[in-house]
Amino acid sequence: MVRGVLLHEMIHMFDYCRNKLDMKNIDHLACTEIRAANLGHCSFMSSLLQGDSSLINIKATHQNCVKHKAKLSVMAVHKVSDAVANAAIERVFTKCYNDLEPIGRRIRRNSLDMPRAYAEGHLYGYDT
Questions:
Q1: pLDDT of amino acid 2
Q2: Which of 6, 9, 26, 73 has a beta carbon 3.0–4.6 Å from 88's, enabling a disulfide?
Q3: Are 11 and 36 in contact (CB under 8 A)?
Q4: What is the largest CA-CA distance in the chain?
Q5: Distance (Å, rounded) from C-alpha 62 to C-alpha 6?
Q6: Mean pLDDT, 10 residues at a time, over the chain (128 residues)?
Q7: In Å, how far are 48, 103, 107, 116 from 112, measured between CA atoms?
Q8: Do the record's keywords include S-adenosyl-L-methionine (predicted)?
Q9: Which one of the listed residues 9, 33, 101, 120 is annotated catalytic?
Q10: Distance between CA atoms of 69 and 19, rounded to whole angstroms?
């Protein structure tokens, strides 16, 4: 849980520095929430627990989880309706869902993704 929260905050800080994130802009907020959910929060198990899962279409399951978590965050921060939050998410979803920086991959639980992402950092220009 702590690791997910830290990763979530890291994504927001990265977006603030790289993309000049403006939290007052609902599209910016939707994008950073999509990226945070995509890279750190959504897994098949979390999707199953929130009712967004499908054993037939795993990719759609992950995307639905990302959209759901991003929508809840946008609604909480901007105090907007479900429809307004959904519209913002749909406007930016494809671009933001496909943006895997600064990790370069979606982190799966109980996998070697974290050490691999760290080891591949130099490929993305992140020197330690």
A1: 45
A2: 26
A3: yes
A4: 43
A5: 20
A6: 64 87 94 90 62 61 88 95 97 94 66 62 62
A7: 22, 13, 9, 6
A8: no
A9: 9
A10: 21
